[in-house]
Write a structure and sequence with these properties.
By secondary structure, this protein is of the alpha/beta class. The chain has 11 helices and 16 strands. The strands form 2 sheets. Strands 1, 2, 3, 4, 5, 6, 7, 8, 9, 10, 11 and 12 form a 12-stranded mixed β-sheet that branches. A 4-stranded parallel β-sheet has the order 14-15-13-16, sandwiched between helices. Strand 11, helix 8 and strand 12 (208-212) form a beta-alpha-beta unit. It is globular and about 60 Å long. The chain starts with a strand and ends with a strand. Bound molecules: threonylcarbamoyladenylate (TXA) and magnesium ion (MG). Threonylcarbamoyladenylate binds next to strand 6, strand 7 and strand 11.
Length: 318
């Protein structure tokens, strides 16, 4: 592992290098927003297409405002309530934001991560850090420094911050001002649920509607993200391997010898913390197929983020 201390992480970022940084959600592959070289290196290192915009990480509300041309009451209320934390807010950008960050969109995604190491780094750097998850495009996201190392080896320096508490990427929220109030659209479900957002809306007296929407402008919401190395198949609870294996083997055109029937923990927070580690561990343990089921107890709103990732990670759903 190429572990960096805060000082050398900062130096590298300012010189246009990328550095893997810890956050409470997943590790990010960071580049300084004012270094075009650093921004380009994020895309090349991840093999990420340029049409997929990046999240800018800031040390708090004041820094976020400096990068935007419109910061509404809704942005203020939600950032006050959930920052630092796993909520990404979309806002109108200003000219400080490089077009590479937003894929040419006129809005920017902003988030203040709830992680002491990330916050200390961000406080020491002007502007902010653009950081997608530190994995190759389409692959499983990293929830520990070991995962980052498994993906990039020594090509990427890592700022160690321990295992990620939340374990899946932040909730991404679009905010539009309308005649009657605000339209809040959850483009990507995560640790902050619509219920939690509603509660803040009510407490602050804002007029706003919260919906779950596939973003028209968030191409990161493509299928075939988060994919583990071996096929993941979502099966009905009644699925029986001995009886039903043909259904899967016919559709995938392959035979499997070591399937694992994976049951997630009952607690959604624990399940999200362990999600990516689990997905990575099965092939390392020699299994060649992952089978899992969406039971009723795994279907409350808190589970939306997890199932969103599993739907994209899956090879097949029966
Ligand atoms: O938890 C997280 O959000 C992690 C950590 C590192 O902070 N970051 C992360 O970044 O997941 P990334 O690049 O994998 O996800 C960024 C996603 C894009 O794929 C897109 O869906 C959305 O955020 N996004 C970014 N800019 C946007 C914009 N201007 N409008 C709408 N969606 C945007
Ligand atoms: Mg990602």
């Amino acid at each position: 592992l190429k572990l960096l201390d805060l000082h050398s992480a900062k130096e590298r970022l300012l010189l246009g290098d990328v550095v893997a940084i810890p956050t409470e959600t997943v590790y990010g592959l960071a580049g300084w927003i004012y270094s075009e070289e650093g921004l380009k290196k994020i895309f090349s290192t991840k093999e990420r297409p340029f049409f997929d915009p990046l999240i800018v990480h800031v040390d708090g509300i004041e820094s976020a405002k400096k990068l935007t041309s419109l910061w509404t009451e809704a942005h203020e209320a939600l950032a006050q309530a959930f920052w630092p934390g796993p909520l990404t807010l979309i806002a109108q950008k200003n000219s400080l934001i490089h077009p590479l960050i937003t894929s040419g969109l006129d809005s920017v995604a902003l988030r203040c991560p709830n992680h002491p190491v990330a916050l200390e780094l961000l406080k020491s750097i002007d502007g902010g850090l653009a950081a997608p998850s530190a994995n190759k495009f389409g692959k499983t996201s990293p929830s520990s420094s070991q995962h980052v190392f498994d993906e990039f080896a020594d090509a990427v320096g890592i700022l160690e911050g321990g295992p990620c508490e939340i374990g899946i990427e932040s909730t991404v929220l679009g905010i539009t001002q309308t005649d009657s109030g605000f339209q809040l659209e959850i483009y990507r479900p995560g640790g902050i649920t619509s219920k939690m957002i509603q509660e803040v809306i009510q407490a602050t007296g804002l007029k706003a509607e919260v919906t779950y929407t596939q973003s028209p402008v968030a191409p990161g919401q493509l299928k075939h993200h988060y994919m583990p190395k071996i096929p993941l198949v979502i099966v009905p609870q009644s699925f029986d391997w001995k009886r039903d294996r043909q259904l899967i083997e016919d559709q995938l055109g392959a035979t499997f010898s070591f399937p694992i029937r994976w049951t997630q923990p009952a607690d959604a927070h624990l399940a999200s913390r362990e999600l990516y580690e689990s997905l990575r561990s099965f092939d390392q343990k020699g299994f060649d197929l992952i089978l899992t089921s969406q039971t009723a107890e795994h279907s409350s709103e808190e589970w939306l983020g997890i199932w969103n990732r599993l739907e994209k990670a899956k090879t097949l759903r029966l």
